[in-house]
């Protein structure tokens, strides 16, 4: 029996090419810099053209390989498997059984949206090697719907054992699924504005803008400035204030723009034990996290957001989404802490989010450990800078003060909480992080003690869950040793039984 | 207070660590020797002789004598029915608890030096991390590997 074989949309040849080109961007920049921006084509030496020539060759190669990949790529459904084949000389075949498919992630770049296409990645239960099982660079929405339909049809047929009549066309199946969808969270324009304003990246953008300004400053004629300086001293203060204000405004607008592009229409939907997140203005992304792939939850509050009682919620997932960066999936980029617990409780009924007040905190004796070593290590720096830059260098003392305050703040923040099978760790580097995980999701727990900690009978505890290749680790420093041991004992399965039988 | 773990690394392991230290020190002294030779050739400051000599001396004391001893003293492990517990570390003593259910696979590894001393490393991988118990007698390492994979297979997720 022949099965109908489907192909990608022709535009995917072009998108393949663009993707490859994006990776080439960096070498190209280096090439241009090495050539010293020297593209005068006076043709004296043929050698001068060789880098350019090689580069052109590479570009053509990528173009052809993009076309070849599109041309050879076919997929079809056979024997309850999604089968994908591509390649000219080396044929790559990938057969994915329907029941192993966990989720389909969608992405639409501008190119996709012009032609009404989507990029689809298929994820399976076992794919932890860092790549999605199969990638469809560009297919029409109907084709994407067909893939989901075909694979789901059999899944439901098997799972429900004919309990529900599923000999239906895909449309009816997807209708049925639609009904169970439940919108958990949506971000308004106001939320996005707040997100942009309080994000750490504002600082990065400001630094960038400052760098830009300093670059521009080089082009301002210096003589003119010297002449103007006399006048400047009069207006100088106002002038500088205005410049700083403008720089901040510019940075803020930039940050707002970036946030809107990335998070526009951010929606979290729950549907059939899966969480579906869609976001983006120019490039729409849809990420699906099956509930059973969630390994842990991180609630992150940077100092500014903590002050306004807002938080970011991140899900550590065993899924891969669109590659490395997506293992930490933002569930709520910004949410008021008052409104947070209800949707979280709905999404994760296995956890308790009532976390205030009951934390086991580090003992008083561990307080110096949060700042002492760091201040001691700062002393040579402070000494040297005070000596060599005498009056201004004394300001470095404030560095020690900052370290002391952060240390005390960390001491105040840290703690852990065990409630049934849930471990909650709370710690701070600068932002306060509350890490929540179930016992069955924690891979390893480690207790760490250096010489000084051992003498004072305190210990650092860290828990690691699966997330991408390396896992995600949460670490609470300087707990009382007996508390650290209590966490280890909680994590042990049958210590009591073991002891009895031994 | 949790009790001390039962098993230590065999005494031969300490010898091998010292041997590794010796090899590192050898490479360091080759570099130091080259620098000293250059100093002699190009008539650089005499201080360089003293610096390179003391670097080699300190490295020798630390890498051959001190660090292996501390590390060997700290190393302890225990493989129980439901979990593996490992204590390791040089300056920071780490106590790691790995439930049997989380173990995905176990490997033994043996380089030429370890082979000569009839020792092997055993690496325990979970979905997120890898933990090594080094310097076990080869026979014991093989036995332990089989035991762990056996226990990991039968361990059931009870939570």
From TrEMBL, chain A:
<keyword id="KW-1133">Transmembrane helix</keyword>
<feature type="domain" description="YdbS-like PH">
    <location>
        <begin position="70"/>
        <end position="149"/>
    </location>
</feature>
<feature type="transmembrane region" description="Helical">
    <location>
        <begin position="20"/>
        <end position="37"/>
    </location>
</feature>
<feature type="transmembrane region" description="Helical">
    <location>
        <begin position="192"/>
        <end position="217"/>
    </location>
</feature>
<keyword id="KW-0472">Membrane</keyword>
<feature type="transmembrane region" description="Helical">
    <location>
        <begin position="229"/>
        <end position="254"/>
    </location>
</feature>
<dbReference type="InterPro" id="IPR005182">
    <property type="entry name" value="YdbS-like_PH"/>
</dbReference>
<dbReference type="Pfam" id="PF03703">
    <property type="entry name" value="bPH_2"/>
</dbReference>
<feature type="domain" description="YdbS-like PH">
    <location>
        <begin position="411"/>
        <end position="490"/>
    </location>
</feature>
<keyword id="KW-0812">Transmembrane</keyword>
<protein>
    <submittedName>
        <fullName>PH domain-containing protein</fullName>
    </submittedName>
</protein>
<feature type="transmembrane region" description="Helical">
    <location>
        <begin position="49"/>
        <end position="77"/>
    </location>
</feature>
<feature type="transmembrane region" description="Helical">
    <location>
        <begin position="394"/>
        <end position="411"/>
    </location>
</feature>
<dbReference type="InterPro" id="IPR014529">
    <property type="entry name" value="UCP026631"/>
</dbReference>
<feature type="domain" description="YdbS-like PH">
    <location>
        <begin position="263"/>
        <end position="337"/>
    </location>
</feature>
<feature type="transmembrane region" description="Helical">
    <location>
        <begin position="370"/>
        <end position="388"/>
    </location>
</feature>
TrEMBL record, chain B:
<feature type="domain" description="YdbS-like PH">
    <location>
        <begin position="72"/>
        <end position="148"/>
    </location>
</feature>
<keyword id="KW-0812">Transmembrane</keyword>
<feature type="transmembrane region" description="Helical">
    <location>
        <begin position="21"/>
        <end position="40"/>
    </location>
</feature>
<dbReference type="InterPro" id="IPR005182">
    <property type="entry name" value="YdbS-like_PH"/>
</dbReference>
<keyword id="KW-1133">Transmembrane helix</keyword>
<protein>
    <submittedName>
        <fullName>PH domain-containing protein</fullName>
    </submittedName>
</protein>
<feature type="transmembrane region" description="Helical">
    <location>
        <begin position="46"/>
        <end position="67"/>
    </location>
</feature>
<dbReference type="Pfam" id="PF03703">
    <property type="entry name" value="bPH_2"/>
</dbReference>
<keyword id="KW-0472">Membrane</keyword>
